[in-house]
Amino acid sequence: MLGFSCARLWDLGQQRCVHSYAVHTDSVWALASTPTFSHVYSGGRDLSLYLTDLATRESILLCTKEHPILQLALHDDGIWAATTDSSVRRWPAEGRNPQKVFQRGGSFLAGNLSFSRARASLEGSTPVPVHKEPSFTIPGTPGIVQHEILNNRRHVLTKDTAGSVKLWEITRGIVVEDYGQVSFEEKKEELFEMVSIPAWFTVDTRLGSLSVHLDTPQCFSAEMYSADLNIIGKPEDDKVNLARETLKGLLSHWLTKRKQRFGSQSVANGEVASGKEISTRSITHSRMEIDGNAENDSMVYPPFEFSTVSPPSIITEGSQGGPWRKKITDLDGTEDEKDFPWWCLDCVLNNRLPPRENTKCSFYLQACEGSTVQILTQGKLSAPRILRIHKVVNYVVEKMVLDKPMDSVNPDGTFAPGLPGGQSQHSAVGGDGSFRMDYGVLKCLVLSPDMSLATVRAYIWKKPEDLVLNYRVVQGR
């Protein structure tokens, strides 16, 4: 019987405990008996492995470990022990004649009550183990015991049981940096970035490995500009939805096999790929969003390419049936669409995203105190949260200096997609160098041009009210 600090022998016919063997000082978690059931090996929370003669009650300590013992398996002349550590170790054992072990001395008689064994341990009568080193070890990968999601929402810092600190890139499922045995907290502070990106995934390490969870609609809340992801061949101002591109990367092998199986024509006609049930299910939900910046194909950008040598596994639950697990390279295109979440297929096949919370940031533009410079605005403005401050400055310069219609602002006060950003502040003025614009002033702090509105609001403004950006003209040097 497990879970107590003593092992118990039960008579199933009498339905009662006939013997108790108090050899451990803490809970017993694993047992393995000899083929004749004359002896039993036991291990548990006290890190110790014992051999006990069930007839004479004689016990002997075989070894002590650094981790609690979870499972035991007797095979020939060895006893295999699995612990909370990731490695499995084999210890010498007399499988056919276990009585030989007791001839080495150091044995003791197991008591009937667990407190008697614990008291003996406290009094210093702890036995000496027979073996100091295992005869064989199957090394395992050190389990992850600590993690931290970084502010850029693409990297996760982890620490394993070996003390090694590593940096993972979630959108590719790989380790991008191994820092070795360094301070986790110091490395976390070193990697801190003043950026604000919505949380679009959650992480747990309960199994000793990194598990990333995507749930709709929260997972579709994070966007970045293609320029920030270093995507070549894509307009730098295109917004990239991190979850959508990650799902495309995870299912790229499945999409390729699926197209090969059904043929490009069937896919294009929507006979199989579009999924009638997916479309029907989508209609029953509230407004769906079409991602106009992304092409409806299986192209995967480099920041979202997953390894085929060491591919991650997908664990999911479809619209029907229970959960299942497969490596992404094992998906052969024969899987039923009902095995996938409908919102996942709607995203990668139909380019549709579920309704999301407001991705805009409202703000006001006001001249600094004492400044006589004014611009024509329409009161409160709104723009994507990822909009950079230098774009706002370009807008201010354009409306303050150049005699142009307000084509960068929509009638409702929102920034139009064509907000100029390629020209520099001096070229906007005319290139004469007579004055320059500060990149926004907030609480007497000149903002960095690369900051986003969301970052300014989260780390500098720190108020629930709409953001207020002050501007000023600095005379030419």
UniProtKB/TrEMBL annotation:
<dbReference type="InterPro" id="IPR036322">
    <property type="entry name" value="WD40_repeat_dom_sf"/>
</dbReference>
<dbReference type="InterPro" id="IPR015943">
    <property type="entry name" value="WD40/YVTN_repeat-like_dom_sf"/>
</dbReference>
<dbReference type="InterPro" id="IPR051246">
    <property type="entry name" value="WDR48"/>
</dbReference>
<keyword id="KW-0677">Repeat</keyword>
<dbReference type="Pfam" id="PF11816">
    <property type="entry name" value="DUF3337"/>
</dbReference>
<keyword id="KW-0853">WD repeat</keyword>
<protein>
    <submittedName>
        <fullName>WD repeat-containing protein 48</fullName>
    </submittedName>
</protein>
<dbReference type="InterPro" id="IPR001680">
    <property type="entry name" value="WD40_rpt"/>
</dbReference>
<dbReference type="InterPro" id="IPR021772">
    <property type="entry name" value="WDR48/Bun107"/>
</dbReference>
